[in-house]
Automatic annotation (TrEMBL):
This is Uncharacterized protein. It comes from the Eukaryota.
Length: 52
């Protein structure tokens, strides 16, 4: 079963970062990757597994 995540306002935030050019987009993805890294670390730490 796939895992889906919905980040409220993601598109608007990306547009805001994109207005600063490639460096802004890179910063946006660094933040997003950090968020998902923390989320996955939490999930793995709980011992949760997929029952698919």
């Amino acid at each position: 079963m796939p895992c889906n995540a919905d980040l409220a306002g993601c598109r608007e935030r990306l547009h805001g970062f994109a207005s600063n050019g490639p460096a802004g987009i890179e910063k946006f993805w660094t933040i997003i990757n950090g968020y998902f890294n923390e989320l996955l670390s939490y999930i793995c730490g709980t011992g949760m597994t997929s029952s698919a």
